[in-house]
Specification:
The complex is a heterodimer of chains A (about 325) and B (about 230).
Chain A (H helix, E strand, L loop, with lengths): L8 H7 L3 H7 L12 H6 L3 H6 L4 H20 L7 E5 L14 E4 L3 E5 L6 H9 L11 E4 L7 H4 L6 E4 L11 H11 L5 H15 L15 H15 L4 E4 L9 H10 L3 E5 L3 H4 L4 E6 L2 E7 L2 H25 L11
Parallel strand pairs in A: 3-7, 3-8, 5-6, 6-7
Antiparallel strand pairs in A: 1-2, 1-4, 8-9
Helix pairs in contact in A: 8-9, 9-10, 10-11
Chain B lengths: L1 E7 L5 H14 L4 E7 L5 H7 L4 E5 L5 H18 L4 E7 L13 E7 L6 H4 L2 H4 L3 E5 L6 H14 L4 E4 L8 H5 L52
Parallel strand pairs in B: 1-4, 1-5, 2-3, 2-4, 5-6, 6-7
Chain lengths: ~325, ~230
Amino acid sequence: MKGIKNRKISALIAEFPFLTSFFNDNGLDIENKEELTLTEYFAGFDEDEIEDRAIDPENLIFQISEFIKQMIAFLGKEDDIVKTVTILPGRDKSGDNEKFDELVIRQGEIICIVGPTGSGKSRLLGDIEWVAQGDTPTGRSILINDSVPDNKWRFSSADKLVAQLSQNMNFVMDLSVYEFVELHAESRMVENRKQVIEKIIDKANSLAGESFTPETPITSLSGGQSRALMIADTAILSKSPIILIDEIENAGIDRKKALSLLLSEDKIVLMATHDPVLALMGDRRIVIKNGGIYRVIETTDEERTILSTLEGMDKILLAYRTKLRQGEIITKIAYT
Amino acid sequence: MNLVTISGPPSSGKTSVILKTIDSLQKRGLKVAVAKFDCLYTDDDVLYEKAGIPVKKGLSGALCPDHYFVSNVEEITNWALKNDFDILISESAGLCNRCSPYIKGIKAVCVIDNLSGINTPKKIGPMLKTADIVVITKGDIVSQAEREVFASRVNTVNPSAIIMHINGLTGQGSFELSTLLYDEALNIDSLKGMELRFPMPAALCSYCLGETRIGESYQMGNVRKMKVED
C-alpha cells in the first residue's frame, strides 16, 4: 500500500469502505475532514491532542495499510474448503511412538476424543489448532487437504482452524439476541446480514426446547437456549472448518439436530465427551492414553444398537423433566 | 539475552500466561528470569519464586508506574545479563491505558481478556496498538461468537499484531506463545541507546508534588481544565 498517505480520506473510503470501522475503532473522527489526505489529516492534530490521545501518525498510517492488505485478502478469496485434516503420529509422554500410520478426518465426520483428564486431549486439540509441524511437545504433524498447511492458520485472526463450543457459554454482553448475532455478522463482514441473522435465530429455535424471539436479551436465555443459539451461530457464521465441542449438556436442546446442523454446514466435528449418547453418535473415536493416541475405534454395529437404546432412555428422562417443569405429578412413562 | 516486555490491564492474566509460557521455555533448556513491576502491591513474585524462577520486584508506589519502569529497566536488564539468563521477561500492569513500556527492537506482548468487554480494545492506547503479539485470555468463559468479535476488534486497532488465545488456567496456547518469544537474532547486550516505542505523557502539577488541597489557587504547573458548559 504505497502512497496512501497522500490520498484523500474520501477516496480511500470509497475504495475501501471497511476503513470506516478502522477510523471508528481507533477513535479517529473524520467528519468534515474527508477531503484531506491522511498526511494532512494527521497534521491537523495539535501537539496536546497527539500527546493526550496517544496518536502516532506514522504507526497509524502503517496500520491502515496493513488493515487494507488484510481485508483485501479476506474479502477477495473464496473460503478455503478444508476437506481433510490428517494427523501424522508423534510420541506419547514416555517418548514412545504412537502406533498409527496416519489418521485422516474428513469433512462431515464426527470424531470423539476420549481418555481420562490429563491424558493429553487438550494437547491433541492444541496440535490441530496450531497445525503442528513436528514442532510441538508431541512431535505430531498436521496436514490440511493432504498437504503442509499455510502459515495463516497459525497467525491470521480471521482464519482460525478450530472454533470451540465450550460448556461454559456465558454472555458478558448486554444485548438482544438480534443485536448479538448482528455484531458477530459485522465482524465477519457478512453480506445480506438480515437474512443470515434470521436464519440463525430460526435454526436456534428449532434446536431449543423453548423458543425465544430476536428481541430476547441474551442474558435472559436459558442454558438450553443459549447453547442452541451458540451452536446455530457457530455453524452458520464461524469460518472455522473444525468445531470442537466439549460436552453438550442434555437439557433444553436437541443434541442430534444440533450435530446434524453442524454437519450440514460442512464442518468437521470433534467432541471431547464421555457421554455415551454423544460419543456413540460419532463415526470414530480416538482413545488418548499417556499423552499419545492409543487407538482409534470405529463405532461398531452393536454400539449403534446400544445408542438407540440409550436414546430411548434419554427421551424418557427428558419427558420426566418436562412433566416436572410443568408442575405435574410424576407418573410412569412407558418405554417406547 | 532476549528481553520481552509483557504488559496488560490489571487481572488480565499476565502472570498466569507468563508462568505457563516459561514452563515451555525451560523445557527447551532456556534460562528465564522475570522482572515484575507493579504499583502498590503484588505477591506475584512469590508465585515466580515458588516455580523456581529468579524474580526481581519493583513497586512504583507514589510514582507513575510506567515512568518507574523506564527508569529501572536498564538496571534490571544488566542484572539479568550479569546472571547469564537467556530471556528476561518484564511484566507490568497498564494502569491508565495511556502509556506502554514497549521499546523499539524489543519484543512487546499485550495481554487482555475477553471479559473486559468488546469496547475495551478501543480504549487502550499504545499498550495494545503497538504490541507485536496480543494474547487474549479467559476465552473459556465466553461464547465462540464473543471470542471472534473481540479478536476482530483487536485486529482493527492493531492489524499488524499476531493474535493468540491462551487459557491461563490450563496453559492451552502457552506452548505456542513460547515458540515466538526467543529469537537469537534479537539478543541484546545492553539497552544503551534504545528508545521507547511511544512517549509517555508529561504530568507535572502541584498534585504530583503532594498537594492535597482542592481549588484553583493551589494548582500550578501542567494543569488543564475540562470544558464545562452550563
